[in-house]
Amino acid sequence: MPSIDLSGKVAVVTGSGRGLGLAYAHALAAHGASVVVNDVDEAVAEAAVKSITEAGGKAVAEVVPVGTSEAAERLVNRAVEEFGRLDVLVTNAGILRDKVLWKMTDDDFDAVITTHLKGTFTCARAAAVRMREQGEGGSLILVGSPAGQRGNFGQTNYAAAKAGIAAMARTWSMELGRANITVNAIVPVAATAMTETIPAFAPYIEAMRNGEPLPDFLRKGEGFGTPEDCAALVPFLASEAARGITGQAIGIGGDKVALWSHPQEIRAAYADGGWTPGTLADAWPTSVGAELQSVGIPAPKFPEA
């Protein structure tokens, strides 16, 4: 098997005090990268750094909420000041403010968009500037979600942000290709504080915390596992082994890794001289409308009791 060696590389992982972000930071450090851990809680960030250094890795903490240009510059500058360079950015920081459309406030919407979408933009921009100055390439790893790929009930703000992140990955992969900077979106599925609130998953997550393994129908069928199961994708994408992979959305969870398709036309119809509402109504059922697409994240297929 190819060896993934990130010795000499420096990474920033936003929102890496706990959960998936902490798993990404640990995985990068375990493969030799020096890591800037980021969180809004100083105690959580310092505990994350301690866990990485006690495992033999190199890490420092930068406590700042992402979203602003100033926060992005602080993260990049911390990497350069502590370790001399920046090679990898993982934009993991996020929050939830779930409500249905008619109950979602401006503050609910703005908070999620600021952290997820604007936070990804500002951090990626600052990282791209630094990586282009260094002239040695780099890796931007943007964290998406199934909600951004398919939509999810009660998550207008989150789904919109994650869909935008996937679109930014595709766009930036073109813009940064000449600088040898790869840009990919990852779509993790794992037992976290977010997913454990789903009643159907709760008993399995609780059993897992008590030392029981997750059943195969979750690990394989649903691609659902631990944060550590998702972490392997990050050092891989940061490595030379993935240098030719860019502009992709890659899902991972449990025992499963998958490539998501990009949106594309699947059916088309034509009318000489253009369409009218009437000709659209007449042609729709047997042409374009014959293959309407589903929405939402499919419900887990739990075994029969």
List keywords for this structure.
305 residues; single chain; alpha/beta; NAD(P)-bd_dom_sf; eight-stranded mixed β-sheet; 8 strands; oxidoreductase activity; Putative 3-oxoacyl-[acyl-carrier-protein] reductase FabG; globular; 11 helices; KR_dom; Rossmann fold; SDR_fam
Helices and strands, with pairings:
Blueprint: E1 10-13, H1 19-30, E2 34-39, H2 42-54, E3 58-63, H3 69-83, E4 88-91, H4 106-134, E5 138-143, H5 146-150, H6 156-175, E6 181-188, H7 202-209, H8 216-221, H9 227-231, H10 233-238, E7 249-253, E8 256-260, H11 277-283
Parallel strand pairs: 1-2, 1-4, 2-3, 4-5, 5-6, 6-7
Antiparallel strand pairs: 7-8
Helix pairs in contact: 3-4, 4-6
What's this model, at a glance?
This protein is α/β, with parallel strands linked by helices. It has helices at 19-30, 42-54, 69-83, 106-134, 146-150, 156-175, 202-209, 216-221, 227-231, 233-238, 277-283, and strands spanning 10-13, 34-39, 58-63, 88-91, 138-143, 181-188, 249-253, 256-260.
3D structure, described in words:
The structure is a single chain. Helix 4 (106-134) links the parallel strand 4 and strand 5 (138-143). The chain is 41% helix and 14% strand. Helix 3 (69-83) runs parallel beside helix 4 (106-134). It has an eight-stranded mixed beta sheet, sandwiched between helices. It has helices at residues 19-30, 42-54, 69-83, 106-134, 146-150, 156-175, 202-209, 216-221, 227-231, 233-238, 277-283, and strands at residues 10-13, 34-39, 58-63, 88-91, 138-143, 181-188, 249-253, 256-260. It is an alpha/beta fold. It has one domain (10-190, 226-260): Rossmann fold (3-Layer(aba) Sandwich). It has eleven helices and eight strands. It is globular, with a radius of gyration of 21 Å. Residues 9-192 form the Ketoreductase domain. Keywords: Oxidoreductase. Belongs to the short-chain dehydrogenases/reductases (SDR) family.
